[in-house]
TrEMBL record:
It is a multi-pass membrane protein. The active site is at residues 228, 230, 235, 407, 409, 414. It comes from the Bacteria. This is Cardiolipin synthase A. One of its GO terms (molecular function) is cardiolipin synthase activity. The chain crosses the membrane at residues 6-29, 41-62. Its EC number is 2.7.8.-. Catalyzes the reversible phosphatidyl group transfer from one phosphatidylglycerol molecule to another to form cardiolipin (CL) (diphosphatidylglycerol) and glycerol. Gene3D superfamilies: Endonuclease Chain A. Residues 223-250, 402-429 form the PLD phosphodiesterase domain. The keyword Lipid metabolism applies.
Amino acid sequence: MNVSLSSFYAIMSSVIFFSYWLLVVITILRIVTRRRPTTYVVAWMLVIYLIPVVGIILYFLLGEVHLGQKRASQAQEMKPQIESFMHEMQDFPHIFTSNVSSVAKPIFQLCKHQTGLDGINGNHIELLTDADDVFDNIIQDVDQAKSNIELVFYIWNKGGRADDLEAALIRATERGVTCRIMLDSAGSRKFLRSPDSKKMREAGIEVIEVLKVNLFRMMFRRLDLRQHRKIIIIDNYISYTGSMNIVDPRFFKQDRNVGEWVDIMIRMTGPITAVMGIVYASDWKLETNKQLILPKVLEFAEPPEEQGHILQLIASGPGYSENMIHQVLLTAVYAAQEQIILTTPYLVPSDDLLHAICSAAQRGVEVIIIIPQKNNSLMVKWASRAFFSELLENNVKLYQFKDNLLHTKSVLIDKQLSFVGTVNLDMRSLWLNFEITAVIDDSVFGQELNQLLSGYLANSEPIDKQRWLKRPFWQHIIERLFYFFAPLL
């Protein structure tokens, strides 16, 4: 009997051993056949090797971009309406223009190839750089709204001016304006379970929790897939986007010892808002399975302003053209002739983007990257440091913003082409999350953004190459450790 039992254990051990390695091979084949950067593939293979079994489980939970069958089906249902809307827009050619600057031309051509739309003409944009100004403008527009208000944000944090906006939205609902809000389940978790959220719902505002986080949903969708867009649409004509969440910096995460968060938003009026509405309607369909009625093109197809801004709007995330924002950023960096200024709170670029930035600096383009000195993510802080040496050795100028947490996400190319939106220079923003970016081809707006960035630089400290190379050896070790896992952050 002991012999038979021993044989059974031996057979079971062999079966388990064979099954495990078969699963490892299948998982690795799945990883390498996905169109992902090499560093991403190597990082996941390292995780699977270092953490047996658990590494495989983590990959299937966090390593693949999938919305779940239900959401995928809903995304397909939205396509005919979007295609019809796009076709209708083509009947009004004055909305579009291909007459853009030389630096913008390759970017706009790429966008047209992906979306079918040329640059969108006849818009007015206002850059808002102070939190109080942002809230003042939004609340004023909400108070004047006549038909509809739509918002989607990653974070809504109670306190200060955020409460003023809440009150304005309730007032709008009371006078018959339709108000819809989508908030990310992870970013706005506390608010979604607060009395304020209940109060808004009771007032008639539709408040939707997006991409809910719980153990059951782990089997069907990535838990770290987040709704990171910041969008406001008012009466299908006014829209906002940028890096700022619905938070008053004076009340937000004051216990983290990083100071107040520094953000920007842009207020836009004109045809670009209709395109923003398509993005919002698609997100709404994914979350609620309800189809919003898109505005008639005639409602915004008036002759464009003579001095209007030319824009492209890039939505990224599952269901959109894969690596779209990544391709656009690469194209913009390679198109630069004189100067590139980037601001990002999280600097963990892909190899392709890192090489493009270094190549630009080597061919004589002045490349400036501004990041916060204080960061709310210890992991990202150390992962970012792993890139400093290569950037500095290639003449990229690195600056650390002092006192507060610089959360602005922007790119300025040759003082002409501006990127403003929600995308960080990390793998999560570039490849995973739902993001939105406005691309503005306008020298006047570029000068305005440049003035803001000059102010950031005045409040920043340069990272000296020689001092950096002499940092303690233990810091090298920690940086390299986080560098291996940077593609997963």
